[in-house]
Amino acid sequence: MRKMKDNLLHGLLWFSAILSVAVLVMIVGYIFYKGAHLISFEFIFGDYSPTGGGGIWPMIVTTIYTIVISLIIATPIGILAAVYLQEYAKQGRLVKVIRFATESLTGIPSIIYGLFGAVFFVTTLKLGMSILAASLTLAIIVLPVIIRTTEESLKTVPPTYREGSLALGTTRLQTLYKVILPSAMPGILSGIILSIGRIVGESAAIFLTAGTVAAMPEGLLSSARTLTVHSFLVTQESGDIELAAAVGIVLIVIILAINLIATYISKKLNKADY
Amino acid sequence: MTTTVKEKNKKKTGKAFLQVGQEEATPGTSKISVSDLNLFYGEKQALFGVSLDIEEKKVTSLIGPSGCGKSTFLRTLNRMNDLIDGVKIAGDIVIDGENIYASNDVIKLRTRVGMVFQKPNLFPMSIFDNVAYGPRMQGIKNKKELNKIVEESLRGAAIWEEVKDRLKTSALGLSGGQQQRVCIARAIAMKPDVILMDEPTSALDPISTLKVEELITKMKKEYTIVIVTHNMQQAARISDKTAFFLNGEVVEYDETNKIFSTPRDQRTEDYVTGRFG
Q1: Are residues A165 and B123, on separate chains, in Cβ contact within 8 Å?
Q2: Contact: A164, B183; criterion CB under 8 Å
Q3: Quick check: A126 contacting B, CB < 8 Å?
Q4: pLDDT for A66-115, tens place per residue?
Q5: B80 touching A, CB under 8 A?
Q6: B110 to chain A, closest Cα gap in Å
Q7: With an 8 Å Cβ cutoff, are B85 and A273 in contact?
Q8: Containing domain of residue B151, as a range?
Q9: In this complex, is the C-beta atom of A178 within 8 Å of any C-beta atom belonging to chain B?
């Protein structure tokens, strides 16, 4: 009887594991099946043509722009905020309120951020529909993610490191900079990777703040179209699932590449043998 | 409070010593003079009127059952308790004639009063970087000088021969006992006068413990050492003076052999003979 229960549980675990992998494989497989034949050098590096047959290079560039700029804005602010909350702030009411706020922010649907961005950055600050406005909005979206993951990884740094360093007559800043942050680095990096996923996957907020101009952006203040927005629009306008799937393939490859690079950097920072 | 008459007298002589012979570094001179120290964790009082003089270039051990305040006391000597929220301290701790709670320069204090912790707490860096960490943070950048400090410190901690060929490899790859001796080297690298040790061998095997004990005995030629220990044999083996703590008070403080052979207080006798604790 007990043996049977054990087998049953075992089977259930296997089934769940296989199911989740299968779904992933099916989705990726479907996208590749539908879109792979469209992938070509011309498709990736060619300029967009509204009459069809053009490439998606402007969208790739725009996507990379938004990733880089929103991370440049959000990463330092997020890390500093987390360091303040975890290392400096007196653990009282105020900190609790701030923590609660950041946690709530992660749960807000991105369209709300998009609306805020459209009102505040685009209109009030007169940035117009632009990459900059979209990046600022995205920075706000990923800020709580970076704060949370950084805080969590700061928590995992053994308190004995802190004590050991301070006992050697170092200042808090030296301890933070030389011992605590380096030990927390892998966790912080994984937060950044998560953020990249969030940024690349975002469409609604970008749609509302960067617009849909399908041309190579001239600068930070030009309106542009990211890959996700493009993917959405081609499905919406022409019902071209195959084209959308091809765009999806490019997105998947970009995310994969970024993840690999980030893991590589994280390993380098850990210097592997420590 | 509960300080005995004898301790009060000693305190006075200790201070007199300080005024007369501050410059001299002969063993037996009072190095640290603690008077009427009370410590609170929030509302809870953890130390009650602790007064004792710690002598220069001797090993002083602090013994007592868990939660008796000996570690708390040790951590007042380099103000590590400052890190804990809600700690209040009343009383004086005078090191080399300077009241350490009167000034706010904890950085300077901690460079003079080093500390070794219960578990080895080396940073995830190379052995070299661990030992050079403190001096580097003090602004020493000269490579030659750092090399010299690291070698001297590792020699001082009797671990140089074991690690000299692998200075650039991770310190966390060493055995626990080796790590603890590198921790001692790291403390020595700051050239402190006083080294505090909080149960430094409690996480080590018997052979490593022996090595660390030998090291401590050797180190007292140069440093004033205060060690918290759970192991009474250890206190008996390595220390010159022993203080017995109970419920946040110093019950008895005397020459180690007196504490273990002819204690004056019944509670001390009960503890050292293993009747409780």
Answers
A1: yes
A2: yes
A3: no
A4: 999 999 999 999 999 999 998 888 878 888 898 899 888 888 999 999 99
A5: yes
A6: 5
A7: no
A8: 5-272
A9: yes
Q: What pLDDT does residue A260 have? A: 87
DSSP string, B202-248: TTS-HHHHHHHHHHHHHHTTT-EEEEE-S-HHHHHHH-SEEEEEETT
Question: From edge to edge, which strands make up the β-sheet containing B87-95?
Answer: B44-55, B30-41, B87-95, B98-99
Contacts of B123 (CB under 8 A, 6+ apart): A161, A164, A165, A179, A183, B129, B130, B133, B171
Count how many pairs of residues, chain A against chain B, have C-beta atoms within 8 Å.
69
CA distance A1 to A210: 62
Among B29, B54, B13, CA closest to B239? B54
- Is the backbone of residue A145 left (phi > 0), alpha (psi -120 to 50) or beta? alpha
Is this model's pTM higher than 0.90 or not?
A: no
In a domain, B277, yes or no: no
Tell me the three state secondary structure of residue A273. coil
* B96, two tokens: 């080399």
Closest alpha carbon within chain B to A164: B121
Asked if residue B155 belongs to a domain, the reply is yes
Q: Establish if B84 belongs to a structural domain.
A: yes
B127-155 residue pLDDT tens: 999 999 999 999 999 999 999 999 999 99
- Strands B241-246 and B249-255, bridge-based pairing: antiparallel
Contact A166 B119 (CB under 8 A): no
Contact across the interface for A169 and B123, Cβ inside 8 Å: no
CA distance A3 to A13: 15
What CATH number is attached to the domain comprising B199? 3.40.50.300
Report which of B240, B197, B242 is spatially closest to residue B62, judged by C-alpha positions.
Answer: B242
With an 8 Å Cβ cutoff, is B52 touching chain A? Answer: no
CB-based contact (8 Å) between B140 and chain A? no
B137 touches chain A (CB under 8 A): yes
- How many domains does chain B divide into? 1
Q: Does B207 touch chain A (CB under 8 A)?
A: no
| Structural tokens at position A242 | 């195959």
Per-residue pLDDT tens digits for A131-160: 999 999 999 999 999 999 999 999 999 989
Tokens of B102: 């009167």
ipTM, two decimals:
0.82
